[in-house]
Design brief:
Order of helices and strands: EHEHHEHHEEHHHHHHHHHHH
CATH topology of one domain: Rossmann fold
Shape: elongated
Helix content: 55-70%
CATH class of one domain: Alpha Beta
Radius of gyration: 29 Å
Distance between the termini: 60 Å
Strand content: under 5%
Largest sheet: 5 strands, parallel
Low-confidence stretches: 1-12, 161-179, 398-413
Strand order of the largest sheet: 2-1-3-4-5
Mean pLDDT: 82
Number of helices: 16
């Protein structure tokens, strides 16, 4: 036990503190551990205690289960660490209301505290010199162990000012306030908190939990955190296959999302294999004209072309374009995406005249439906200009709608 904020020299039940950190912050973790041990606390830290011959998984489990409290060394790197998330969530599950302060977040940089971490008061060490940081650390640790921050002596009697200056500025001035985070980042934090809560209360295999995990993976991809999206989608897919079956629509949605992440990470062969399996199952369960089937077909054509099988990509784009024109209409955004990509494939196969015709039709429709300055319109305008140039028929001056494009490569949308 800890009495009055003093370290228990015996710590019979294990350690006073388990230090949870990511390898990028090892120097900070060791500095914190040294300050705590120098003050008489017992600390478990991977850098010092996971020596050759020890089983790191067992030691990690012992730390999470037997340490009286977990210190989470918070940084941007830590917040994206799978192991770090597991460690702080294990401490949070023991004390979800914070009555015994099992989880002590220590921020070493001005990073956010997303999800459930946002409700826990942190110890902030950034912006201090070593002496100040050590003093702040030990002061807040003592207060956390006691459960109060009552000062040692009585506060001074507050003086009441009758007529404060009308233009008095707020003190201290908020010079470090950052702009509000973007909507996708806010959505990520909300979904992370929701997922952690649902895993705790409903279980990791519950339908609602898996829906939240699926949606969080989509948000991670929108934030270009492809590796985190891949990891989460792989876990969600395994659980949905096991609980819903391999042909369930929700399972196949997750498979499609995982294939998207694999493709974004450059693993085109794995993406192709998963898209092909998902497309076959969608065709069998929903039919060849369903929107999800056509979305998967469109997505599959991209790695086919990237892997050199352009003829197969052309065939699939042509079939998808015909079905989207029939079911969605020729001006629908998804129809025009397929038309744009088919034109790129035709150009790569040497059929420049067919590519030109399709670019021109797509450009006219995108200008009319999206406007001349939309990024998709500009992308088609640029690709058309290149196709005209290859045919020796490039017009003088910029192609209308191309004025903001700075020589990008052919665009796939």
């Amino acid at each position: 036990m800890i009495d009055g904020g003093r370290p228990d020299a015996d710590a019979a039940d294990g350690w006073n503190f388990f230090i949870s950190y990511t390898s990028a912050d090892q120097a900070w973790a060791e500095w914190i551990a040294w300050q705590l041990e120098d003050a008489g606390y017992k600390v478990l830290i991977q850098a010092w205690d996971f020596v050759a011959g020890s089983n790191w998984q067992i030691r990690m489990q012992e730390g999470m289960e037997q340490a009286q409290r977990t210190v989470a060394v918070l940084s941007e790197a830590y917040l994206t660490s799978v192991y770090g998330q597991a460690e702080w969530q294990a401490a949070h599950r023991k004390d979800p209301r914070g009555f015994t302060r099992k989880l002590l977040p220590i921020r070493i940089e001005d990073c956010p505290r997303p999800g459930l971490l946002g409700g826990i008061v942190s110890i902030d060490l950034f912006g201090h010199d070593p002496e100040q940081a050590s003093s702040e650390l030990l002061r807040h640790i003592r207060q956390a162990l006691i459960g109060r921050a009552k000062p040692d002596k009585a506060p001074s009697f507050p003086l009441h000012r009758q007529h404060p200056p009308a233009d008095e500025p707020t003190f201290p001035p908020d010079q470090t306030r950052r702009a509000d985070p973007p909507d996708d980042l806010k959505k990520r934090w909300t979904l992370e908190a929701q997922l952690a809560q649902e895993r705790l209360t409903l279980g990791p295999d519950h339908t609602d939990t898996l829906t939240t995990a699926h949606n969080l993976a989509i948000t991670l991809r929108a934030l270009d955190d492809q590796q985190a999206a891949r990891t989460l989608s792989e876990d969600t897919l395994e659980r949905r296959r096991r609980t819903l079956g391999p042909n369930h629509t929700d399972t196949l949605r997750t498979a499609n999302n995982l294939a998207n992440a694999l493709g974004a990470l450059g693993d085109r062969q794995a993406a192709r294999t998963l898209y092909e399996d998902t497309l076959e199952r969608f065709r069998r369960t929903l039919g060849p004209d369903h929107a999800l089937t056509l979305s998967t077909a469109h997505n599959l054509a991209n790695p086919l072309g990237a892997l050199g099988d352009r003829q197969a990509a052309r065939t699939l784009y042509e079939d998808t374009l015909e079905r989207r024109r029939r079911t969605l209409g020729p001006d629908h955004a998804n129809t025009l995406r397929t038309a744009h990509n088919l034109a790129i494939t035709l150009e790569a196969l040497g059929d420049r005249q067919a590519a030109r015709t399709l670019y021109e039709d797509t450009l006219e429709r995108r200008r009319r439906t999206l406007g001349p300055d939309h990024v998709d319109t500009l992308s088609t305008a640029y690709n058309l200009a290149n196709a005209l140039d290859a045919l020796g028929d490039r017009p003088r001056g910029p192609v209308p709608g191309q004025r903001h494009v700075r020589t990008p490569p052919p665009q796939v949308t």
